[in-house]
Amino acid sequence: MKMTVDFEECLKDSPRFRAALEEVEGDVAELELKLDKLVKLCIVMIDTGKAFCVANKQFMNGIRDLAQYSSNDAVVETSLTKFSDSLQEMINFHTILFDQTQRSIKAQLQNFVKEDLRKFKDAKKQFEKVSEEKENALVKNAQVQRNKQHEVEEATNILTATRKCFRHIALDYVLQINVLQSKRRSEILKSMLSFMYAHLAFFHQGYDLFSELGPYMKDLGAQLDRLVVDAAKEKREMEQKHSTIQQKDFSSDDSKLEYNVDAANGIVMEGYLFKRASNAFKTWNRRWFSIQNNQLVYQKKFKDNPTVVVEDLRLCTVKHCEDIERRFCFEVVSPTKSCMLQADSEKLRQAWIKAVQTSIATAYREKGDESEKLDKKSSPSTGSLDSGNESKDKLLKGESALQRVQCIPGNASCCDCGLADPRWASINLGITLCIECSGIHRSLGVHFSKVRSLTLDTWEPELLKLMCELGNDVINRVYEANVEKMGIKKPQPGQRQEKEAYIRAKYVERKFVDKYSISSSPPEQEKRIVSKSCEEKRLSISKLGPGDQVRASPQSSVKSNDSGIQQSSDDGRESLPSTVSANSLYETEGEKQDSSVFLDSKHLNPGLQLYRASYEKNLPKMAEALAHGADVNWANSEENKATPLIQAVLGGSLVTCEFLLQNGANVNQRDIQGRGPLHHATVLGHTGQVCLFLKRGANQHATDEEGKDPLSIAVEAANADIVTLLRLARMNEEMRESEGLYGQPGDETYQDIFRDFSQMASNNPEKLNRFQQDSQKF
Fold first, then answer.
1. pLDDT (mean) for 105-115
2. How far apart are CA 657 and CA 663, in angstroms?
3. Distance between CA atoms of 39 and 113, rounded to whole angstroms?
4. Comparing C-alpha atoms, which of 503, 431, 434 is closest to residue 470?
5. pLDDT, position 547
6. Model confidence over 23-81: pLDDT tens digits?
7. Is residue 534 pLDDT above 80, yes or no?
8. 285 bridge partner residues
9. CA of residue 41 relative to chain centroid, distance
10. With contact defined as beta carbons under 8 Å apart, do 686 and 649 qualify?
11. pLDDT digits (tens, 9 = 90+) for 406-423
């Protein structure tokens, strides 16, 4: 092994040794500068490489975004996705390369500079220090006078010790120099070799990656050549089409006008029209109108949901309008509203009017053909008991209003003319109607029939359950009881005049209702029967306070005998023997009244029949009583002037209450104790009924004879659900009054909460019984 500095020369401390040291020290200093520079350059390269990887990754993400954007083009999406995956692999390879560079160059050389060169510098400092001390000892030894024996001995001893120390440190220093000179070669070569191997691995990985990608790129290149040829061909075709269209005459927009009632997309006609707003300013706005699916709709923007102007064109008429200042106007009139429209020219106006008229005629023709097909396919057992059982199963599923209502016996065809697949309903009668009969029902007035669409309108859950409790078969047994006896035939579909006469006779004049003898027994006899029952089973429940909730569920807590008569005394007051308090019905389960006191319903006056049927939750009997002329707000003077609606509350049926309200029951009519339906529903804890009455405009500020309103009753009873509903309704009422929004339904939160309670009351009533269930525990 060749030594940079000889140890023998070190002991001699010769000029040759000093020259060798000077050369080595200069070489090490320059080496340190070179290594420092190389490490710094390596750091810059690594940082730049990492920045390159970040930029490359961003570029790769851009390619992936472009691929997702091109999802409708399979070739572009597949190619870009494959390329972005390959680039991602290359980024990973670059990252590995820079990590290896950092370990091999930066870390390894930096460690050599900091450790080995630092040791060399420390040894150099010690050598220079001891070398100086040796020189000083030599000078001092040479200067001592011969006659000063003591100083001669001291100088000699110092020189001897200094020489000994110098030799030891000088040898260590020479050893450090020789080791450094030997080690620096291996450290530099090892780091550089590791760096080059990292590059070798990087390029091998890249080569392998693109070797696999090569065949795909070659196929894509061939496909790209075909795409270029196809693009050139399409360009020539588009240029030819452009030239052909450019030669057409577009002097007037009328040349583009056409309508097609048999269009495949269902759009008969479309185009721009001006529409007059229904606000006070009567502003005109240009909108894109179209006739489609037997409706007239318009859009402001393409992505907007179409706004329906006319729900069913068969219900409307169209006419010219010459009595306003604007030209080319026409009006589309439906049973509920009218819409004033303006075309751009007379020719366009005539075309739109003709398109609407043609659509009306086509819709009637298609409906007639459809009904004939359904009549041929319909089974004679449509109204059988089996279908009734099937309907119960269907109600458990999530069908639409049309499906749920049509599965009720008799509802698959129009109640009045028998046309199949009716899409309209009379909600207070509980029947389904065809489009033509529904228009006739509208003309009768809402006090006879309230018409609603089974497909276009939103149905509240309690109203939908009401429709499912009645049906065409039930109502026709009442309103057409004597049709066969009188020899009258029901009108057929399409006979408009015959239908109008028949429907008016059926529902307004009630000519076909069975005119049995009503109230054949005198009222005194009825009083005696009622009084006898009262004396037998008088209850002390009349002292029941608002805080003393009935310990039973709304469905089972209130019971009556077959006559619907209830017994108890008034609140803290003696009553006449023949008087029955409305509070007498707050009796617990099991205290049923004797059915022997009931009279045949045919011997009751219609008001009393409605009164008793309301408590019994018997909707067919209630409909029969109304058909015989019962006053829906009839007050029973024998029972604290309670009304059928109050009886329905006591009976615990939400659907019964809805039926009476739809037929004009006064939601604020109170009994002799000053309690209306809302009071009774609050006392009994019937949350669903409270929600229904508040939606129907019940006055929650009304107080009973004790000065208590429903809210105070609910607070005393600690019924959280009812308190929430009452307070929310009161807050909503105050907000509307303060903002002057009279007649408005309320904000979205208010409507959402009431909608949720309505859903629970109709579909999951057990959830609203938690208060009564909790009360039973105590």
1. 82
2. 10
3. 10
4. 431
5. 42
6. 888 888 888 888 888 888 999 999 999 999 999 999 999 999 999 999 888 888 999 99
7. no
8. 275
9. 58
10. yes
11. 888 888 899 988 888 898
DSSP codes joined into one string, 396-462: TTT--HHHHHHTSTTTTB-TTT--BS--EEETTTTEEE-HHHHHHHHHH-TTT--EEETTTS---HH
- Tokens 């001006």 -> residue: 274
- List phi, psi (to 5°) of 247: -80, -10
| Alpha helices (runs of H) in 545-676, residue ranges in sequence order | 606-616, 619-627, 644-651, 654-662
Token code pair at residue 73? 């083009």
pLDDT in tens, 387-405: 444 444 443 333 577 888 8
Q: Which helix (H) or strand (E) holds 582?
A: none
H/E stretch holding 641: none
Among candidates 96, 94, 70, 97, which has minimal Cα distance to 82? Answer: 70
Task: Report which of 41, 42, 82 is spatially closest to residue 64, judged by C-alpha positions.
Answer: 82
- What pLDDT, on the 0 to 100 scale, is given for residue 763? 65
Tokens of 128: 């220079």
The residue whose two tokens read 């006609």 is: 269
What does the alpha-carbon distance between residue 386 and residue 381 come to, in Å, rounded to a whole number?
A: 8
For residues 210 and 83, the answer to whether their CB atoms sit within 8 Å is: no
pLDDT at 96: 92
Which one-letter amino acid corresponds to residue 696? R
Give CA angle at 98 (94, 102), nearest 5°: 170
**In this structure, what token pair is assigned to residue 530?**
């009622």
In terms of Cα–Cα distance, which of 285, 288, 286 is closest to 302? 288
As a whole number of angstroms, the distance between CA 343 and CA 340 comes to 10
CB-based burial, 138-148: b 16+ in 10 Å, e otherwise? eeebeebeeee
Say which amino acid occupies 376: K
Residues near 704 by Cβ (< 8 Å), separated by ≥ 6? 670, 673, 674, 675, 679
Dist CA 466 CA 411 (whole Å): 13
38, two tokens: 């190389």
Confidence class for position 725, pLDDT limits 50, 70, 90? confident
Alpha-carbon distance values, 317 to 292, 296, 298, 312, 663 (Å):
16, 12, 18, 11, 30
CA distances from residue 634 to 292, 509, 637, 638, 773 in whole angstroms, order as listed: 48, 21, 9, 12, 34
Whether residue 510 contacts residue 479, with contact meaning beta carbons closer than 8 Å, is answered with yes
The whole-number pLDDT of residue 738 equals 64
CA distance 375 to 39: 94
Report, as an integer, the average pLDDT of 269-290.
88
Residue 319 DSSP symbol? E
What is the number of H-type helices and E-type strands within the chain? 23, 10
Is 551 exposed, middle or buried, given 0-12, 13-18 or 19+ CB atoms closer than 10 A? middle
Collapsing DSSP to helix, strand or coil, 333 comes out as strand
Closest CA to 258 of 357, 358, 318, 348: 348
The 8-class DSSP code of residue 322 comes to -
* Domains in the chain with CATH codes: 7-242 (1.20.1270.60), 259-376 (2.30.29.30), 383-508 (1.10.220.150), 523-776 (1.25.40.20)
Q: What are 287's two structure tokens?
A: 């909108």
- Residues 102 and 80: their CA atoms lie apart, in Å, by 33
769 token code pair? 């019984």
Count Cβ atoms within 10 A of the Cβ of residue 352 and give its class: 0-12 exposed, 13-18 middle, 19 or more buried: buried
